[in-house]
Write a structure and sequence with these properties.
The longest helix has 24 residues, at 2-25. It is globular, with a radius of gyration of 20 Å. It has one domain (33-179): Lipocalin (Beta Barrel), CATH 2.40.128. The protein has helices at 2-25, 43-57, 169-179; strands at 33-34, 68-73, 82-87, 98-106, 109-118, 122-129, 132-140, 146-154, 158-167. The chain is built from three helices and nine strands. A hairpin with an 8-residue loop joins strand 2 (68-73) and strand 3. The protein is of the alpha+beta class and 184 residues long. It has a five-stranded antiparallel sheet with strand order 1-6-7-8-9. Strands 2-3-4-5 form a four-stranded antiparallel sheet, covered by helices on one side.
Length: 184
């Protein structure tokens, strides 16, 4: 009898652990997920991205990997996170924004699927267009308002700017409070 009790207690603990892990690793789909970049945590992918950009744009990003920031984010629910890179170099970014590229990992190399200029923090939105999650970024303007830019996936074209919405600082604060989930 005692072994049956231990079995049920152990089963209950394993079930609780699974529920807790699922809630932690797979947040509510109704929330917005910030995309977190680092220029020190992923040196192998930083070097690979730097080499690809250097080859295409004749830059020298491989000399200073601090010029490349990397983030991982599953944008299509295939459980294989895409590599998102921000590249800071005077020949590819400036007042037009930050050079941003998204890569899919194919076995042993990265394949670029999209590139453009973006500003500010990238945020994965909870809804999809053509199988890929929409992405937003927010830009402060000179008049004190904030522009919310939304990127949506277009088949055979990659992410495209769909709309820009102007928000007051108060509207943005309210929006962020309601929608952006805490990271830690």
């Amino acid at each position: 009898m005692e072994s049956k009790q231990k079995f049920w207690i152990r089963s209950l603990l394993i079930g609780l652990a699974a529920v807790t892990a699922t809630a932690y690793f797979y947040p509510k789909k109704s929330s917005i997920e910030p995309i977190l970049f680092s220029n020190t945590l992923y040196p192998n992918d930083q070097m690979e991205v730097a080499k690809l950009i250097d080859k295409e744009y004749e830059t020298d990003l491989t000399k200073s990997l601090y010029s490349v920031e990397i983030a991982y984010c599953d944008l299509d629910d295939d459980r294989k996170p895409e590599v998102i890179a921000l590249a800071y170099h005077s020949s590819i970014c400036g007042s037009g924004g930050i050079h941003t590229e998204i890569f899919k990992r194919n076995k042993d190399h990265l394949q670029k699927v999209w590139e453009a200029m973006t500003f500010g923090s990238l945020i994965k939105l909870p809804h999809k267009t053509n199988g890929m999650y929409d992405i937003a970024f927010f830009v402060d303007t000179l008049d004190g308002s904030i522009n919310n830019h939304t990127l949506v996936w277009k088949k055979d074209e990659g992410y495209m700017f769909q709309k820009t919405k102007k928000m007051t600082k108060e509207e943005f604060d309210s929006y962020a409070k309601e929608n952006i989930r805490p990271i830690f």
